[in-house]
Amino acid sequence: MTVLLALCCLLNSCERQAPSTIRTITLWYPWGADLGKQLKQIVGEFERTHPGIHVELSFASNNLTSSQKLFLAIAGGVGPDVTFVDGQQLAEWAARGALADITEQVKRANLGPNDFWLPRWKESNFGGRTYALPWGADPNFALVWNKTAFREVGLDPEHPPQTLDQLSEYARKLTKLDSTGHIVRIGFVPWEYEFNNCMFTFGYLFGGDFYREPKDGALIGKVTANDPHIVAAMNWLDTYAREYDVRRMTSLKENAGALANHPFYVGAEGMALMHVIQMDQMKKYAPTMDFGVGFLPPPPGGEEKSGWVGGWSLAIPRGSKVSDEAFEFIRWMCASPEATLAMGTTMTQFPAFKNSPYYDTIKNDPKLGVYYEILKNAKHARTLMPVQGYLMNLLDRALQEELYGPRDPNRAKEILDRVTEQAQARLEHVVGRLERRTAREEGEAPAEPASANAARQEPRPPAGGGA
User: Fold this and answer.
1) How crowded is residue 24: how many other Cβ atoms within 10 Å of its Cβ?
2) In 196-217, which positions are buried (b, 16+ CB within 10 angstroms) versus exposed (e)?
């Protein structure tokens, strides 16, 4: 009887300690395959340490300017509790009214710009308010080189190019053609991650900037895609591409097919720009390759150890209740030592949380440590404005127009002048619409248009998507 009584007391005690109800929150995420599985492992750890909260995951595709499933769900009042949002999308989504303001919750959690890599923190804010916590921090990009290919052509495999001119020289030596003139191995392809990302990578490398941020709480800054340094970067890309024929260079990647056939992994590329997550892919698809990791070399006067930072954030869609459970999940995922360590070790994703213990494990690594140095030195994200996706589309078409069109040294400036004008007009249109919507919601008279151009008329958006 004494034993039974003790067991009953123990069971009653356990029942009192267990949560009386389990609160379910929904999370929408944008990846499949390995990344999706790895994310579920980390979420499982959150549930283990938070027994009163269950996280239900659902896949939702995403692109630069939209997430159709998410926007339809928000409009229908059935959005998730938490969603991933690409950092470059945040200003646009906030301006559309798609995200909840979590400024007060972030303050109560004692989190702020000193806790995260600054470019990522800035990407999580719009109009002086916080709409997300930054989760990942992508140091874009490191230069990798095939040491075996270097030896083959007489280059020192332990010394990558130190200047942009030297990069061109090494690429020339590494490029190999067959008897018919087809490329067997290309020395280097600058647009490894699409033409628009290429423009940011080389624009920043040359010392340019694409957007002058507004001051004093204003919402409209100045688009500067025609910065002379960015014009110089486009001219360099054009000169480089014409030496090898842009069509033949691009076809190498297009014909690769499966990820395992990436040109660098199979020896068809001597040097390449790589994302940090590809360090894991190299182990899987090219485990015997002898390769090095270093910095993209600058032109004279350009940025040393140049790079820009991207990454995903976690936000709460507008219309969903900013519950304690949802915000705790965001806080834990983005700013807890255990979650950010698991993120790095499980997904090879660099955390946006600066003080993550993950960095102690990799900062001296000969490969991952290079990415850490890029991240520490990076000053840039993509533009912090609510038409970033639209600018990306314009830059993509602009570089293709330059590379595939007739050679003209004045053409780059003409193209980028047009990009700048179109993006600025779109920015003024979107912010003007935002101000009018805000005035209606607050029951005030319509706000003054955001610019003289908007005051004259509401410009018709240029074709091609955007906010």
Assistant:
1) 11
2) bbbbbbbbbbbbbbbbeebeee
Burial track 157-171 (b if 16+ CB lie within 10 A, e otherwise) = beebbeebeebbebb
User: What structural domains does the chain harbor?
Assistant: 21-138+309-377 (3.40.190.10), 140-304+383-419 (3.40.190.10), 423-456 (no CATH)
Considering the entire predicted model, what is its pTM? Answer: 0.86
Residue given tokens 């969903």 in the structure block:
320
342: burial class by Cβ within 10 Å (0-12, 13-18, 19+)?
Answer: buried
Task: Give Dmax (Cα) for the chain.
Answer: 96
- 226 contacts: CB under 8 Å, gap ≥ 6: 413, 416, 417, 419, 420
Residue showing tokens 């179109």: 422
**Element of type H or E holding 64:** none
Report the C-alpha gap between 423 and 91 in whole angstroms. 15
Tell me the pLDDT tens digit for each residue of 73-112.
Answer: 888 888 899 999 999 899 999 988 899 999 999 999 999 9
Q: Under 8 Å CB-to-CB from 95, ≥6 apart: which residues?
A: 126, 386, 430, 431, 434, 467
- Look at residues 188, 366, 192 and name the one whose alpha carbon lies nearest to residue 279: 366
Using alpha carbons only, what angle is made at residue 315 by residues 312 and 320, rounded to the nearest 5 degrees? 150
Q: Which residues pair with 138 in a beta bridge?
A: 310
Model confidence at 461: pLDDT above 50: no
Dihedral (C-alpha) 226, 229, 233, 234: value to the nearest 10 degrees?
Answer: 20
Place of tokens 């790079």: 307
Sign of CA dihedral 230, 236, 239, 242: negative
Confidence of residue 19 (pLDDT cuts 50, 70, 90): low
315: phi then psi, degrees, rounded to nearest 5: -135, 170
Six token digits for residue 60: 């939702």
> How far, CA to CA in Å, does 351 sit from each of 29, 112, 310, 313, 329?
17, 15, 11, 10, 16
Query: What are the pLDDT digits (tens) for 340-355?
Result: 999 999 988 899 999 9
SS3 (DSSP) at 191: coil
Q: Judging by beta carbons within 10 Å of its beta carbon (0-12, 13-18, 19+), is residue 47 exposed, middle or buried?
A: middle
